[in-house]
Specification:
With about 350 residues, this protein is of the alpha/beta class. The protein contains 13 helices and 12 strands. Helix content is about 45%, strand content about 20%. A hairpin with a 4-residue loop joins strand 11 and strand 12. The radius of gyration is 20 Å and the shape is globular. The chain binds 3-isopropylmalic acid and manganese (II) ion.
């Protein structure tokens, strides 16, 4: 298969983890005879620095012309600590999601046997957890009208959703549940928010098309508790943009490190793959960032193109690295000297040697 991949390493540890993800893509392309063409572009703080804007036109063009986008991370403390800055790195990613209509963000959360000990949660609580989060990505508070008064003493962000926004992601989430354990939980705040009541109404209607899928509803405050108290009750979670952002970071505690969580953001035409961790500025340049979230994002990329064998081999190699203790310090308390690069090299060697 020929695939044109836009590569946006982004900020902080982004370039370091993406370098490992690219090594994996290359070794897979050789093994399976795929023709992968990479085009690199800037997004985020690096784009502001080099091209003056967080999402340069050229980056958008490269992404639009690609079959898939591999993205690293976004953000810089310089902006986080200065709320008066009008141009911000994150605007680049948000604009890209909007422009490419990447409305569904899919985040798998799994408790790996070998990393149970890395979670602060009890083994018996998390063991066997396997959750797939469907987070709506182009609506809600993130994209509603924003206001701030001239004196800077009043601000507002509008949360709005239309029926179609809810329908299109719900269809994907129900389909996913049908292929898994037939359970879907909608997380909302329908006791307070009009938008949540609309979500419940529309999701209930759609559920009629999927009678085999058991539909549950949970208020987000309760869900935040349940996800660490009894995560095994969840199969597919469906939720709006901000709730999904928060719940997925929380759920990463189950995996033992956020450095293990991959994601896919898909729309009708385009797809972007990225680790869910951010730019991790404290770790930048130290070689300690976990490349596994990015490498598993590559597995999701191959899966997206129905290249399941490629994806399975990557996951097997990741499992092997975890089992062998070839892990970055986030997973290894004995102040590991295993670097981002070493984890990547172990994984590609493993892939290379599989028959
Ligand atoms: C994520 C990130 C982004 C988000 C930020 C960087 C804008 O936290 O992908 O989860 O909030 O969506
Ligand atoms: Mn987030």
């Amino acid at each position: 298969m020929t695939l044109n991949i836009a590569v946006l390493p982004g900020d902080g540890v982004g370039p370091e983890v993406i370098a490992q993800a690219l090594k994996v893509m290359k070794v897979i392309s050789i093994k399976f005879n795929h023709n992968l063409n990479f085009s690199f572009a800037n997004l985020g703080a690096i784009a502001i620095k080099k091209e003056g804007v967080p999402l340069p036109n050229n980056t958008l063009k490269i992404c639009k012309n690609s079959d898939a986008i591999l993205f690293g991370a976004i953000g810089d403390p310089k902006y986080d600590n200065n709320p008066t800055k009008k141009i911000r790195p994150e605007q680049g990613l948000l604009e890209l999601r909007k422009q490419l209509n990447l409305f569904a963000n899919i985040r798998p959360v799994k408790a790996y046997e070998t990393t149970l000990k890395n979670s602060p949660l009890k083994k018996k609580v998390i063991c066997g957890t396997d959750i797939l989060i469907y987070r709506e990505l182009t609506g809600g508070l993130y994209f509603g009208e924003k206001k701030v008064t001239n004196d800077g003493n009043y601000a507002s962000d509008l949360c709005s959703y239309g029926r179609q926004d809810i329908e299109r992601i719900s269809e994907l989430a129900f389909k996913a549940a049908k292929n898994r354990n037939n359970k879907l939980t909608l997380i909302d705040k329908a006791n307070v928010l009009e938008t949540s009541r609309l979500w419940r109404k529309v999701v209930k209607e759609i559920s009629n098309k999927y009678p085999e899928v058991k539909l549950d509803f949970l208020f987000v405050d309760n869900a935040a508790m349940q996800i660490v108290q009894n995560p095994k009750q969840f199969d597919v979670i469906l939720t709006e943009n901000l709730f999904g952002d928060i719940i997925s970071d929380e759920a990463s505690v189950i995996a033992g490190s956020i450095g293990l969580l991959a994601s896919a953001s898909v729309g009708d035409k385009h797809a972007l793959f990225e680790p869910i961790h951010g730019s991790y500025p404290q770790a930048t340049g130290k070689g300690i960032a976990n490349p596994i979230a990015s490498i598993l994002s590559v597995a999701m990329l191959f899966e997206h193109f129905s290249l399941s064998e490629e994806a399975a081999i990557i996951k097997e190699a990741v499992d092997a690295s975890l089992k062998s203790g070839i892990t970055t310090p986030d997973l290894n308390n004995k102040s590991s000297n295993i670097t981002t690069e070493k984890v990547g090299s172990f994984i590609i060697d493993y892939i290379d040697k599989i028959d």
